[in-house]
Sequence to fold (129 residues):
Amino acid sequence: MDNNKTPETNNVAPIGLELLITIVDKNKAEFYVDLIQSYEVNFQFTALAKGTAKADILDYLGLTENDKTVIFSVVRADKLDDLIYVLGEKFRTIRGGKGVAVSVPFTSMIGTTVYAFLCNAADNMRGNS
Fold:
């Protein structure tokens, strides 16, 4: 055994993933799900929610309703900045389209097949399995 050799590393996960959490009015949820999906997002789910702001606060902020949808999306880190920019533009320009978005990075994941699906790299990963 040659101790001078460095161990071969297999860079299976070159693309980072982030969990994007987007909160929008319930009646705009389908629009935002479709928009997010256009950024090569293979996994999303939604949950109905109820905002807690009182009517006078909603009026002051220009928000139209308390019924919300929370969209959970797994997004490639290299697509996130562009997606956040577009979401911000839509939040500002669409009537009744205001929302909030935040992302949390994935620090680990089990399973190369799941990883490949989530980062939309399944074709590239087939040779590595």
